[in-house]
Amino acid sequence: MLNIRNVSKVYGADHRLAVPRDVGLQLEAGEFCALTGASGSGKTTLMNLIGLIDRPTAGDIEIVGMNTSRMATTISAGRAVSSPAPSTGSIRI
User: 56, 63, 69: which is closest to 8 by C-alpha?
Assistant: First the structure.
């Protein structure tokens, strides 16, 4: 399950550009979703947030019930490996 609640990513030294802004989405296992929008609307940023490539400025993302803000992410051998906490397991992306 993927659960996104009030997610925003703020850019710029003055923190004025928020893309995406206050996004919410819930997908159950086996569901499909198309992400569409105008250029610059935050589609790639949202995918980077879901894929743990970047972190949201505000809001929460849960993947299979685990809040991604509590995961440590490292890049190793060309793939991201995330673990919810030391010695508790891992999610391979």
Answer: 56
Residue-wise pLDDT tens digits, 67-82: 988 776 554 445 555 5
Domain boundaries, the chain: 2-92
CATH class of domain segment(s) 2-92: alpha beta
Best CA proximity match to 26, nearest among 69, 63, 52: 63
Residues 8 and 59: beta-carbon distance below 8 Å: yes
- The rounded distance, in Å, linking the Cα atoms of 1 and 4 is 10
- Give the total residue count for the chain: 93
Q: Residue 90's Cα: distance from chain center in Å?
A: 16
Task: Please tell me the pTM assigned to this model.
Answer: 0.72
